[in-house]
Design a protein that fits this description.
Chain lengths: 134, 181
């Protein structure tokens, strides 16, 4: 399969320059893979619902790059126009659904809310167990 | 630069129902242990939160479209987007622990099914609330991007074919930045 043709628009460069160095590095890596079609499973290109021909690829858990899919005389061209903070709240919800804890006989599940959020702790025979690792 | 209320972000984002946070915590805890099905008051409160989220999403979409069409200033759009980002971060801090928490344990504590259904519905609504804020901000950011590209006008286009050219492009950018710096 032919590599993708990617256009970098001025707005993308402006947004890229505003990123922290580590996110810039991840953005570069993502774009290399995107152009090579070598990691679409992890890049997860998707059409943004509610927006006109706006697509995104995943840079990190909290960042996405945005592009429009156009065509020129040579075929498809992917015009990168923005990169920025963009959490995937559905993924967060789905990820939580994959982690499960089981309270065995004589155990109970305790929940406490603290400054870092909620902690779920198994308690039972032999004292409190460690919280489940995610 | 105008700072009239009509140019401001939809920062008058209506707050969630007063007892929403108590609701999340109550349902979260009881979805792990309560034998009895949820009572009417908590179901009504959960529905009220769902209605709030539905109305919020519509309002934010409308407001952000209006602002994006009206504002012709990159800095004003950036400022409006930053305000929405702050609101998103604040709400995210409240909601993400419930979104990210593992589901009720299987086989141990026996919670009534109604609580589990309620928790699932609440999580959907929480995700929807955060998405509405996020996408309203994105709309403003994309409009700002359009203005930047219009301002820069037709110039040498940067079109890269394949990963090697992408790498070369960013490499030379870094090199140019280092020279200037």
């Amino acid at each position: 399969m032919q590599p993708r043709k990617v256009e970098i628009l001025p707005s993308f460069e402006a947004a890229y320059d505003a990123l922290a160095p580590d996110i810039q590095e991840r953005t570069q890596e993502a774009l290399v893979h995107f152009a090579e079609r070598s990691a679409d499973n992890s890049l997860r290109p998707e059409l943004k619902n509610g927006f006109d021909n706006v697509w995104s690829i995943r840079i990190t858990k909290g960042y996405r790059a945005f592009y429009k899919k156009l065509r020129d005389s040579e075929g498809a061209i992917f015009c990168m126009f923005h990169v920025g903070h963009h959490d995937d709240y559905r993924a967060l919800k789905k990820l939580a659904a994959r982690v499960s804890i089981t309270a065995g006989p004589g155990q109970s599940v305790g929940v406490s809310a603290g400054p870092e959020g909620l902690r779920v702790v198994l308690q039972g025979r032999g004292g409190a167990a460690k919280p489940p690792r995610r | 630069m105008s700072d009239t209320p009509s140019d401001q972000a939809p920062a008058a984002v209506p707050p969630p129902p007063d007892r929403a946070t108590d609701l999340f915590h109550t349902v979260f805890v009881l979805s792990r242990s309560a034998n009895a099905e949820p009572g009417q008051p908590v179901v009504v409160e959960a529905r009220a939160y769902g209605t709030y989220v539905q109305q919020l999403a519509l309002r934010l979409e409308g407001e952000s479209r209006r602002l994006a069409a009206r504002l012709q200033d990159e800095e004003a759009l950036a400022r409006a987007a930053r305000e929405l980002m702050q609101i998103e971060a604040q709400r995210g801090a409240t909601l993400q622990p419930y979104l990210a928490a593992p589901p009720a344990p299987a086989g141990g504590a026996k919670a009534a099914a109604g609580w589990l259904v309620l928790m699932a519905r609440l999580r959907d609504d929480m995700a929807r609330e955060l998405e509405a804020l996020r996408d309203a901000r994105l709309r403003l950011e994309l409009r700002k991007a359009e203005l930047i590209n219009q301002r820069k006008g037709p110039q040498v286009r940067i079109v890269l074919r394949g990963g090697a050219q992408v790498q070369l492009f960013f490499g030379s950018r870094a090199g140019n930045a280092a020279e200037k710096g």
